[in-house]
Design goal:
The chain has helices spanning 15-26, 40-50, 66-76, 91-100, 112-123, 139-143, 157-167, 172-179, 183-197, 202-212, and strands at 6-11, 31-37, 54-58, 81-86, 104-107, 128-129. It is an alpha/beta fold and 216 residues long.
Length: 216
């Protein structure tokens, strides 16, 4: 008996990228694209409807970014495996997604052969990380992420608020007033955020936040 093709949901807010991936996968009898979505909320709804074997998920999307959508998909339909796609191999993205249980992380610069390898690997229940990013995903690196801490952790909700206000060019004093915090506390949050995201300055922080889609 022939094995049925793997069903796949494609998620990206750029229609040209969606069409390109769909065209590539259409040539492969072992996979079948069952639906496409252009944001995280739409992806979650279509996972519930179609229950695909795999989701190829962009990170930077409106309404709900790929990181949050991946977490919701894992809860809504644990049998669906997620492969995250990004233009950037940001350390925080890689660790947060792998810790949330996604099946793989690929750069959008990956070629056809690596994409197919990732799909086959994840479909078998294993985890696939782009070759360039494997050092970041190393277990020892994750467990010794910061001095005095035992595991990696993403930004807290308060830290996310601070990041978004920095994006809107708020000063430390203005952030403190808006969040009802002391300026010392805000500065502490900023230092912790920089350390967690492994960035050295505000430009690096902005680059990270824009990739998450927080600049909208």
């Amino acid at each position: 008996m022939d094995t049925p093709p793997l069903t796949i949901l494609l998620v990206d807010d750029q229609s040209m990228f969606l069409d390109g991936i769909e065209s590539l996968l259409a040539r492969l009898p072992e996979v079948q694209v069952v639906a496409k979505a252009t944001n995280g909320l739409d992806a979650l709804a279509k996972v519930t409807l179609h229950k695909p074997d795999l989701v190829l998920m962009d990170i930077n999307m409106p309404h709900m970014d790929g990181i949050e959508a991946s977490k919701h998909i894992r809860k809504a339909n644990p049998a669906t495996r997620v492969i995250a796609l990004s233009m950037y191999g940001h350390r925080e993205f890689v660790l947060e997604l792998l810790d949330s249980g996604v099946g793989g992380y690929l750069l959008k610069t990956a070629g056809k052969d690596e994409l197919l390898t990732a799909i086959r690997t994840v479909a078998q229940g294993d985890q696939y990380v782009a070759q360039e990013l494997r050092t970041l995903a190393n277990k020892a690196d994750r467990n010794h992420d910061r001095e005095g801490e035992t595991r990696y952790g993403p930004l807290t909700s308060r830290e996310m608020q601070v990041v978004k206000l920095i994006l809107h060019e708020r000063t430390t004093a203005e952030i403190a007033a808006e969040l009802f915090l002391s300026t010392t506390t805000v500065e502490t949050h900023r230092r912790n955020i920089m350390h967690k995201l492994d960035v050295r300055n505000t430009a690096g922080l902005v680059k990270y936040a824009m990739e998450r889609g927080w600049g909208a």
